[in-house]
Amino acid sequence: EHSSHFIAENCVDLASIIHDIDHRGYNNAFMIKNKSPLSHLYSTSTMEWHHFKQGVFILEVSAISVSSNI
Fold first, then answer.
1. Which residue numbers in the chain have pLDDT < 50?
2. Which phi and psi (to 5°) does residue 35 adopt?
């Protein structure tokens, strides 16, 4: 049970960090209206996709980093 609590806490921490990672300070409508480079990559939910992709990238790099030290 302690293990599942630890995992849940870490998932919440990770989600809160990734939620707004690399936020540009503008909403999706602004990014699309002003034809930002991100809006060309992600035509819907521009910032949400950007946060998600940044989070995945960091997790992948971290996993490589951790595994190379084993």
1. none
2. 50, 50
